[in-house]
Amino acid sequence: MGQYRRHVFVCTIGKTCMAAGGQEVFDVLKKGAATAGLQGVVRINKAGCMNQCGHGPMAVVYPEDVWYSGLDAEKATRILQDHVIGGDPVGQFRYIAPPGDNKLVDDA
Ligand code: FES
């Protein structure tokens, strides 16, 4: 077990996720976790490119190692409630791809 019940990384620095709304997804998760009183229990971090460019905004939730793609504020709210708080990953938003780099664009 890590230092947090859940540790979430949201791609906000890579250019395709940022252009697709990564910052908004991060804000929803960060503020939602704080509002739920989970400071020190769950951690929401900004992350650089996860080498899945073009599928974003991307996020990954540990310790379950569940990756999400194509997020927006509404989906982030659902992930916050069901997975980050409730412990139940949201299957319909899951990112399923072969391990490793899965970029759609070359210059991200
Ligand atoms: S910019 Fe988000 S995965 Fe590359």
Overview of the structural elements:
This protein has 108 residues and is of the alpha+beta class. The chain has a single domain, classed as Glutaredoxin (3-Layer(aba) Sandwich). The chain contains three helices and four strands, in the order E-H-H-E-E-E-H. The chain has a four-stranded mixed β-sheet with strand order 2-1-3-4, covered by helices on one side. A hairpin with a 3-residue loop joins strand 3 and strand 4. Helix 2 packs across helix 3. The radius of gyration is 13 Å and the shape is globular. The termini are far apart. The model has no long low-confidence stretch (mean pLDDT 93). It binds FE2/S2 (inorganic) cluster. FE2/S2 (inorganic) cluster (FES) binds next to helix 1.
What are the main properties of this structure?
4 strands, 108 residues, binds FE2/S2 (inorganic) cluster, globular, alpha+beta, 31% helix, Glutaredoxin, 18% strand
Kindly report how far apart the N and C termini lie: 33 Å
Supply the helix-strand structural class: alpha+beta
Neighbour order of strands in the largest sheet: 2-1-3-4
Biggest pleated sheet: 4 strands, mixed
User: Which descriptor suits the 3D outline?
Assistant: globular
Radius of gyration: 13 Å
Architecture (CATH level 2) name: 3-Layer(aba) Sandwich
H-E string = EHHEEEH
What's the number of domains? 1
In DSSP terms (H or I, runs of 4 or more residues), the helix count works out at: 3
CATH superfamily: Glutaredoxin
Q: Using DSSP, what is the number of strands?
A: 4
Ions, cofactors and other bound molecules: FE2/S2 (inorganic) cluster
pLDDT under 50 segments (min length 5)? none
